[in-house]
Amino acid sequence: xxxxxxxxxxxxxxxxxxxxxxxxxxxxxxxxxxxxxxxxxxxxxxxxxxxxxxxxxxxxxxxxxxxxxxxxxxxxxxxxxxxxxxxxxxxxxxxxxxxxxxxxxxxxxxxxxxxxxxxxxxxxxxxxxxxxxxxxxxxxxxxxxxxxxxxxxxxxxxxxxxxxxxxxxxxxxxxxxxxxxxxxxxxxxxxxxxxxxxxxxxxxxxxxxxxxxxxxxxxxxxxxxxxxxxxxxxxxxxxxxxxxxxxxxxxxxxxxxxxxxxxxxxxxxxxxxxxxxxxxxxxxxxxx
Length: 288
Prior knowledge:
Elements: H1 4-18, E1 23-28, E2 50-56, E3 59-64, E4 68-73, E5 78-84, E6 93-99, E7 104-110, E8 116-121, H2 129-132, H3 143-151, H4 157-162, H5 172-181, H6 195-214, E9 255-259, E10 262-266
Antiparallel strand pairs: 1-6, 2-3, 3-4, 4-8, 5-7, 6-7, 9-10
């Protein structure tokens, strides 16, 4: 599933292509794609200018005039194609948006049909059910906020990073890369982290996600950007997908375990496991 860097890359590409354009029409060819089930008449989008395209978590919001908004979730295999209108639509193209004065249209293609769109009519898209439940954005949060949030939570660190209600946009790939960079085991109890460990986690989160965005994301299977091109961050992975290969830090073999139903890749030497919560003495590791 495309994660924060991939979705951010797609949103940036769409911003360059469609902001300022006026919509002629929106055509949905797969009824279940519309999660709102026609709650907003698509004809209301006709003639409306696209004002903004942005990412929230793993979702993309296309904001138009007069409080209209399209909310997309790519899920596993969703893709946007900016293509000539005369180009044949294949069986996996489930939505098309045409624009005034353009011979191209924006298509949403999804082989596995898990993706969806919601057509919103609101001045506050953030109140949509899919967005209201999301946690904070990792690239917009400060160290203090992350620290307070983590120390108040129970459970294993890898599972917490994947919890979209806690932090929005991180998936399996970047959770593994962030944990490797910060030298933290995926099974580490979140509440056991010291302030210094949380600082390492925050720093790794900022570094890995920003580098991945700069590289256009990771193309593992289906992901392509709005121009139909692959990302390149997969060539910089140090843990994810590297089972049996030497750790780039210490040389020990990278392991693969299933944690919470998800494959997790890590180095057992660099990322030591904690087996129980540690009691912190007053003042321990205070400050950053």
